[in-house]
Amino acid sequence: MTDAVQAPGFARLAPGRAVETRLVAGRLQAVAWDLTAGRRRVLTRATHGVDLSEIEPGGDWVWWFDADPGGEGRWRRLPFGAVGDGDAGDPGDPGDTGSGEPGGGVALAGLPCGRAYGLAFDRAGTVAALAVGVDGATRCYLTPPAGPARLLGSAPGHLGLADLSPDGRLLALGGRPDGPDAVLLRSADTPPAPEVRLAGGPGRRLWPIEFHPTPTHGPELLLVAGEEDRYTVATWRADRGLRLLPALSFDAQISVGWYGGGRGVLVQHERAGRSRLLVADLDRPGQREVPVPGGTIHDLSCAPDGSLHCLWSRASTPPRLLVLPPGGGGVGGVGGVGALGTEPAAGEREGAGRRSQRWTAQPYGRIHSFVTTPAGHGPWPTLFLLHGGPAAHDRDSYDPRVETLTGRGYAVVRTNYRGSTGYGPRWQHDFGHRVGLAQLADLAAVRAELVADGTARADRVGLCGYSWGGYLALLALGVQPGLWSLGMAAHPIADYPAAYRAGTPALRALDRELFGGSPREVPERYRAASPLSYVDRVRAPVLLVAAEDDERCPVSQLLRYTDRLKELAVPHELVRVAGGHRSRRTADHRAVLAAMLRFAGHAWPAPAPAPAPAALLVRLPHRAPRRDRRRGTNPEPGKEVTPP
Fold first, then answer.
1. What confidence score (pLDDT) does residue 197 get?
2. What pTM does this model have?
């Protein structure tokens, strides 16, 4: 299994240099990759790990975000050839050096501590633009690398920096996709030119992606537009405004980036749990599909020579780095991984379970689930492993938790309930602000089908989830107490109004979209969606996992829920862990899974289990990539947490 968790970020002007984020001795670290010498060097030794790393266009300097467990920190900058912890193939433990020195100086003098909302460079690498979240607002800075930070402006709430134009004169920022500031184009000139705002609305969502690297008629921005039942590629230029391209319209989520010179684009289409790639030219009709093995592309980047580097997996195959030559030819391997065809190669992990897909018909559509069952015959004790988000979806991709649970004798169900991406805008948005309750109806329908066909034991069906998935687990235990006999929730929302008040600006914006307003504006919707409202009805054993530094689902709102469970004498356990909402250390995720296995074993006594697989407990998030890669941008980031 590769230890890479992102596709490489390449230096535009130095084709032989790239930076990667990789697992090193159980922590995510920034790694310099010298393609010419065929050598990787670990650059950082951050105690809490590294979530974001970038390389300047010239390839001489690497940036990485030094965040605390709560997600706040500063950008640091160090030379590409800096002496770190040595070769990536034989590193020491970067978190146990004793010094606590993370590596690299502060990137910009005067830049405040905050949340990383984006980093971009001009084409030559002489100017850097940054967006930083500070005290509930977004501050934008523009400066030469290593120079003093120059504040361009500030706006309340969350704005993500999508890109900086090649000439360094225009910033593209994204706000709430359906709001009046869905796209904000801000001038970097002195004095600045007037801002341009592209508004979304009830029937249209907009996401800025990136500027054309070599524009011929002024800056040209590539966007994605989400309409009632489609996602469409779009462009913007000052002389002609926003234009949608109906020839590049798709029924489910897409990511897009400029590709191959001219006005070529690369589209990644996510539908029903699988990825596909297409190449098109905006000046010519038609599109061509790039052959990729069936499964999921977790992350994607384009090297200066036009080759595509894909971090890929499928249910039977742990993550691998694949390379597609310029133009999208055959698939090859990277870092010692052999070539892949469309079927599992010899030695691929088939695991202990049998895999199938289910489509459960309902009046409003079909609910898609991935089901993995142990060897032998059912019915089995069954766990619904709920994804977070809700703007995310389970895929045909490798998840070691599934393998571990089926090895212990559990059937595992991963359901893409309403609100999930990958099934079109209607499936994601059209459930009438019935937050949580609509999703529980989907889970109940799938449960009934699995019990009826002999897959699930009716008396042993439980829920297990992280973040928003953990929230759904807690909500279901109170709303549907007769259906679920076990609940396990890591980093969940338990008191929705309280979580809203304590959340980050980006999460509050997401909640306002989900509910149609804030708790002050629509209090009855938040009460109806809050697990705390139904805690008096909970009867099943409950495991809760909380982190003191969780900035997304604060521990304080969870403690109110556990206090009430204690008053009601409901069997429960609270496990406290380090690492914030999403730890960058595999040991933290191992500990959470071990606690869940122990708790489920006590709640559902069973025959001696088969041994768990020895694979590293790594599940790759389908994440928004580093800004200079952009190809795999997830247009709707949410509350999802996926163990790295």
1. 95
2. 0.84
